[in-house]
Amino acid sequence: MKLILIAALCAATVAHAQSTWKIATGYRAESFHTENIAQFGREVEAATKGQLRIELAPNGSLFKLGDIRQAVEDGKVQAGETIMTSMVKDIPLAGADSIPFVVGTYQRAQRLWDLQRPGIEKAFAQRGLQVLYAVPWPPQGLYATRPIKTLVDFKHLKMRTYNQTTIRIAEMLGAVPVDVAMGDVGRALGEGRLETMITSAVTGVENKVWGPIQYYYEINAWFPKNIVFVSTKSFAQLAPDTRAGVLKAAAEAQRRGWEASEAVAQNSTRELQRNGIKIERLSPDLEREIKHMGERFSREWVRSVGNEANAIFVPYYLN
Question: pTM, whole model, 2 decimals?
């Protein structure tokens, strides 16, 4: 009887022992995404009364950004963060993030995520992963060395490209695709190898693009999202009340992260303006043409992905 009691006490101790998750991210500690994860960790520890601790590993210190999802899947680390567009090859639904000129506001981006999330969760579950939350980067805007009034103004402009979506955009606009790494943008602008590009206001500030760049158009081309996730095995090992605490903190991290993204976008746009870049909107006629281009992109994407894509964009366009 005594041995049974001791065994039961030991089992209870193990079940309620403190657990630690490492979360790997490829982004620097100062990124608002990383700061949000750090806050998530503090809230998890408080909500679970110390039963779960989160150790954050930023700057790609554990794994490169593109390798993090696989590392969590392989059990090399408990949790991670990556940008969803990095997973398109394995999880085509993640590509909804990079369809341009469709999602024009944070509210519409949230609706897209609400429609996209069930399919992403299913795909993650098949790989032994549990989705915690997703937060967008600030929207992608248009930078140019000269005014853009009509589609004709894009003709023969050297446009920075870095993936198939941006190459396709350049082709449809009649611009010349130029493969330029983000770290080389400043030099490429200075040497005249680059005249226009689509990226966020945050990236423009970080790379100090003012000087050659004269105009920034708030086209909100797309809202790429980072996703935070944990291995299903690590999540299942937690006590039920601890799991509930994690999910509650994740929901709060998502809400807080979306607000932070919008604030960062506004602050960065003001910083571009303070450094002499003209902040403008496209003409109504050009905005309409760009929107039609986005609809064409989404149709092409739906055809390439199939029925799962219809589950996102049919209801998206109906509302």
Answer: 0.87
